[in-house]
Design a protein that fits this description.
about 260 residues; alpha+beta; about 35% helix; about 10% strand
Length: about 260
């Protein structure tokens, strides 16, 4: 629930190489797979230095272009950059603890779920919100925290991405323009050439697979018999639709006044 901007990367442990441009033995596909020489694709220490230098370089460019908020000149950017470049930075790299499938499953939930699940909210008062969290500093024990309502809303909205921001980006073999190369990489690695079809689960099946519960999530919580079905989805309104809705609301208000 604290501010900690970060990125997750899933990086292939090698590269697809065209055999026509190398001295390698030609393969039927015209490609070969060049695996990483070590445990990871990049040397960790080298990547740490490269990341530090690149980060500071891009920050200095923002400063030079006048796009960096220096709090009306109170921030000494040059001193900050000099100090940052003089320190050793660390890039944390770790192999999947429980296999690639578990890692993908974890990141899938991490990316597409909301900031906090409903079951973690204990109570909502007039001015405070109480929710459960796991304290990693105390062996991951479950605890409760009380926050002022405005502070809870602020923390929640900090997880809402700006308009137009892309949450997931694909590069290299996983970019949409490299679908044919991805198929060649699969064949070189001994996998079927055709990309697998992703099964489309219905919501009850998906919910059961995620939670392990046999209870139908659409079941009405009040009568315990009826099923709640989606009727319409609401999303952001832009452009002429926004003006139309504003005009419609104004007409309805006049109608109520003169009724």
């Amino acid at each position: 629930m604290q501010g900690h901007l970060h990125l997750h990367f899933i990086v292939t442990g090698g590269a697809l190489v065209s055999t026509s441009s190398t001295q390698r033995v030609s393969s039927p596909t015209g490609y070969s797979w060049n695996p990483a020489d070590h445990k990871f694709l990049f040397p960790v220490k080298l990547l740490s230095n490269q990341f530090r230098n690149r980060f500071c370089f891009e920050l200095s460019k923002l400063w030079a272009d006048g796009k960096l908020n220096t709090n009306d000149g109170e921030l000494d950017v040059q001193t900050m950059l000099t100090e940052a470049l003089s320190k050793n930075w660390e890039v944390y790299i770790q192999a999947p603890l429980y296999g690639v499938e578990k890692l993908i499953e974890y990141l899938g939930r991490y990316i597409f779920r909301i900031a906090i699940s409903n079951h973690r909210i204990v109570s909502v008062g007039k001015d405070t919100v109480t929710f459960k969290y796991f304290d990693n500093r105390d062996d991951g024990k479950e605890k409760s925290m009380d926050l002022p309502a405005l502070e809870f809303i602020r923390r929640f909205l900090s997880h809402v991405l700006p308009d137009g921001f892309v949450r997931v980006r694909h590069f290299g073999l996983h970019h949409s323009s490299c679908r044919a190369k991805l198929q060649h990489a699969r064949r070189v690695l001994g996998l079927p050439f055709e990309l697998p079809n992703i099964p489309k689960l219905k919501f009850p099946d998906w919910f059961k697979q995620i939670t392990g519960s046999d209870e139908d999530p659409r079941l009405c919580k009040f009568c315990g018999k009826g099923l709640m079905l989606p009727v319409r989805e609401f999303g952001p309104v832009f452009g002429w639709r926004l003006k139309f809705h504003a005009l419609l609301g104004l007409l309805i208000s006049w109608k109520n006044v003169f009724a």
